[in-house]
TrEMBL record:
Belongs to the LytR/CpsA/Psr (LCP) family. PANTHER family: POLYISOPRENYL-TEICHOIC ACID--PEPTIDOGLYCAN TEICHOIC ACID TRANSFERASE TAGU. This is LCP family protein required for cell wall assembly. Residues 87-276 form the Cell envelope-related transcriptional attenuator domain. It comes from Catenuloplanes indicus.
């Protein structure tokens, strides 16, 4: 099933209306936004077919705990590689049945898991890094949205097999597409917790940012006279280019991909906080401008549940209630298999994911606060 509503309209539904509620706006205003853009909304495309492939009963309804699968993608220019879209970030958004808190659980992209067979893409299955699931599922014939739908289907099925978590819905986030949102907000407040050298941006003699590119063999490639941008420790407002660059860094961090996961979580939270603090989302005119600037940054599937039900159910969750969670308590746990490095989740991390499945994550975190990341 393919959507017929424009991408900016889908973003307006979830991003705009949710933040209207979070910013203290009225439910009437949020409902007005929904009515304006959901006339042609077609649910069920991102996870189409996933329910048949996953074990166990259907996902929790809106009256219980909710788990949403968020996938950040690295969209490459057409023809630049064999796989045009890679899953760069995998996050489980968990909201307990009390609906008064929200948790972002980052899944290590190098986690070694068993990916099930997927006939639609002629994929036989096997043990791979979990971020491969989206890529293998993506290799089907069809439109770009249908390809991404297949990628999400295989990824959600893989996560279900590995953790038992059922997903009420899913979203694809193009982090590069967030540049328009951050620009419309006038930047976001970010706190650099460790000095980090960019792998994609440089600074020339005049202090101007220069876009570079990264090579696995030679590192960052920059024009002559340009040096890599170094993000210094401390809190400050970042523009879109700086914030997105900071959220991509992992090579120069002491905790590698765990640091990048934390920074991407912080960026999501910073965008929410900045949008709600400015009050732009209580003004429908400003909201339209903000959303149109975002372009196709966000594609949503609510699993057949009307977006309004999510909005009204989660009206008690504020931006400050968003808690960032790290697996392995943020400690790298590398295993080598046939010379390839993978990330392995320890027993406590698997208990944490089981707690998200059972709706007892809040209790687990009280007993294991080391899994809470700095925000």
């Amino acid at each position: 099933m393919v959507r017929t509503d424009p991408l900016w309209a889908r973003l307006l539904v979830i991003f705009g209306a949710v933040l209207i509620v979070l910013s203290g706006g009225t439910l009437v205003a949020a409902h007005t936004v929904i009515n304006r853009v959901t006339g042609s909304f077609t649910p069920g495309s991102l996870l189409e077919g996933a329910a048949d492939a996953q074990d166990g009963p259907a996902g929790n309804d809106i009256d219980g705990a909710v788990n949403l699968l968020l996938v950040g993608i690295d969209a490459r220019p057409e023809g630049s590689s064999e796989t045009a879209v890679l899953s760069d970030t995998i996050i489980v958004l968990h909201i307990p049945q009390t609906h008064d808190q929200a948790y972002l659980i980052s899944i290590p992209r190098d986690w070694l898991v068993e990916i099930p067979p997927y006939g639609k893409a002629d994929f036989a299955g096997g043990a791979y890094k979990i971020n491969s699931a989206f890529s293998y599922g993506y290799q089907v014939e069809g439109t770009e949205l249908e390809k991404r739908s297949s990628g999400m289907t295989l990824l959600s099925t893989t996560l279900n097999k590995a953790t038992g978590i059922r997903f009420n819905g899913a979203a694809i986030i193009d982090f590069a597409g967030f540049a328009g949102v951050i620009h419309a907000l006038g930047g976001v407040d970010m706190c650099v917790d460790e000095e980090a050298e960019s792998a994609h941006l440089g600074v020339d003699a005049a202090g101007k940012l220069v876009q570079g590119w990264y090579s696995e063999d030679y590192g960052i490639q920059l024009p002559a006279g340009v040096t890599p941008l170094v993000h210094k420790k401390g809190c400050r407002k970042m523009n879109a280019t700086e914030a997105l660059d900071y959220a991509r860094i992992r090579k120069s961090l002491s905790d590698g991909d765990y640091g990048r996961q934390r920074h991407q979580q912080q960026l999501i939270k910073a965008i929410v906080k900045q949008a709600t603090s400015r009050g732009v989302l209580t003004d429908l005119g400003k909201l339209d401008s903000l959303v149109k600037a975002a372009g196709d940054a966000f594609v949503l599937d609510t699993g057949g549940v009307p977006p309004a039900d999510f909005l009204f159910t989660f009206k008690g969750v504020a931006a400050s209630d968003l808690t960032l969670i790290k697996t392995n308590a943020g400690n790298v746990n590398t295993v080598l298999v046939d010379g390839i490095a993978y990330e392995d989740l320890d027993a406590k991390s698997l208990q944490m994911l089981a707690a998200a499945k059972s709706g007892t994550l809040s209790t687990f975190l009280i007993e294991n606060p080391q899994f809470i990341a700095r925000s």
